[in-house]
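1,4-alpha-glucan branching enzyme GlgB
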Amino acid sequence: MRKPRATAATSGPDGLAPAGDVAAIVAGTHGDPFAVLGVQEAGKGFVARCFVPDAEFVTAYTLTGKEIGELSRRDDAGFFEGKISIRKRQPLRYHARNAGGDWWLTDPYSFGPVLGPMDDYYMAEGSHLRLFDKLGAHIIDHEGATGVHFAVWAPNARRVSVVGAFNDWDGRRHTMRDRKDTGIWELFIPDLVAGQPYKFEIIGPDGVRLPLKADPFAFESELRPATASVTAPPMAHQWGDEAHRGYWRKADPRREAISIYEVHAGSWQRRDDGTFLSWDELAARLIPYVVDTGFTHIEFLPISEHPYDPSWGYQTTGLYAPTARFGDPDGFARFVDGAHRAGIGVILDWVPAHFPVDEHGLVKFDGTALYEHADPRQGFHPDWNTAIYNFGRREVVSFLVNNALFWAEKYHVDGLRVDAVASMLYLDYSRKAGEWIPNEKGGRENLQAVSFLQKMNKELYGHHPGVMTIAEESTSWPKVSRPVHEGGLGFGFKWNMGFMHDTLEYLSKEPIFRKHHHNDITFGLVYAFSENFVLPLSHDEVVHGKGTLLHKMAGDDWQKFATLRAYYAFMWGYPGKKLLFMGQEFAQRREWSEERALDWNLLEFAPHRGVWQTVRDLNYLYRSRPALHARDCEPEGFSWLIVDDRDNSVFAWLRSAPDGSPIAVIANFTPVPRENYRVPLPQAGKWREIINTDAADYGGSGMGNGGMVEASGEGGGVSATMLLPPLSTIMLEFVTD
């Protein structure tokens, strides 16, 4: 139900505003200040009214500088009014004076609205796909003046004002216009420039002033611990990445080499004094490193504005603002462009599942549960003490869908990895009986979240071909990476959490016991093609006491390094796209912490350098051999060669694709060399050893097959007899004539 509104002011015969309206403006309680302030009709002429605290005298001028009238002070708090000599309604400037000096200001209440009826229509319908061009703070030219247009959704508020240092954080001075049908409040503040901190002062439906709120659509924010939004200039960056974007627009990512380097921007490297690198410094260091190491994409942990460093960005308060930790928004645009020019894609970790309850954020935004559910059984996340978005509200869905489109359009990002999808899909996620509300059909599925995810994927893929979405989804929900028109959620890819869990569990066992856990490796191929999978060895595996990947491997130090190298080659030969968290490419020993940089000095030591060289060579092979990537998501590209040799802990399979030579992947997960080991192969002839993780250059024992094996058809079926080095993976590529 809409709250009652103050009636429009009427001027008396002398053109004076009613005393009640003057008092309400001064108190900041008037329901419609545009009916009082600015230019108002009075008989056959016009009066001007303004609220300018601290002024003793005010003279009105046109924007062209013509003096049109002296205003009288009706209230000592700063309410002025008076007749002005103009023939038609127009924006005004005021010259204000007091004993301490004088100043000029342009009257925001003398300007008309910026938003139009079509904006109202599409916003109310929840179908507006360019909200980021309408809401938030935009520097524009309007009715002859330059300033900032503010617009925010707060349908249950009694009053919304823009506050900042420019008005002494006084909510009475820039009260916004209420577009009653949509719940959008807007105000054009002339003469305001870029770089100004601001917030919204909101009076809730109960008349209580809320803690000041940051702008949900803010495009720039203050550096924490400050929490204000900042008026941002229009993006000035000139893009030069059309070749990169054009390539991916035409590509089928399922058949492309995708090897992702997951990065926490605040702790990959730091300056000598421990402070964060800027985006430009990151570009100068990170992009060449990723190119050299052979990855195809950088995936950043969330870079949207967030108040708390240890949240790693997953508790975001500013979905539309790149965090101020690394510089201004244009700096991030330069980083993405630089990555693209170097042939590297940029994926953002994106968090539409929940948001923190910091008072300056979205929680109880207009005094009511607006973005979240009111009922904690639906609106509160017990795992993270956060609020859950109300996916049943079209304005909230529109806010989130627009954010996905925003990153793709404004910052040219190549993809979104969507965090915590499982928590969105199930109403009973991390909840006991009685702590959740079933859906309309009595089930546990969050049908509104399903609808949101489908809409987000349809709009993103529809408007930005070449951009991909990746779901972090840990359950057996069907068709996560299938198109919406086939009943799927519409994601391009899904993280294969089962692969990560099973393989790490297997390799944590002492080699002598691995034969009892053989199925941990083979089971994954039962479902490997049920989705388009990314194989993730992510940040989640190297925090909270879990240790690093190196320390998850069983055995002494030599065995740990050997097993890790073998594991990486096993993974790079396994069907699915690849993801590795920063530091694991050189076998970081210390568990990751967001408070410090990686231990880059480790690259000075041969075992660590050997792991890095292994990853680098694997990336090169993966990208250059179609057999290793072109059928990552299709069963036709995989066939077992050896699946049941549990006693020796040996696995072998064939990867193939129409455009490349077949490649055999053979892993020996014991420290025992297997001499004269027979491996079935599909073709007789020479097979070149294209990688051997036991090579001396990698830090291994140097055992191998002299770079080549010969397969023959003797003894029934084609096979080759070879040496399998200890704790190693080798790849053999068929040599065509």
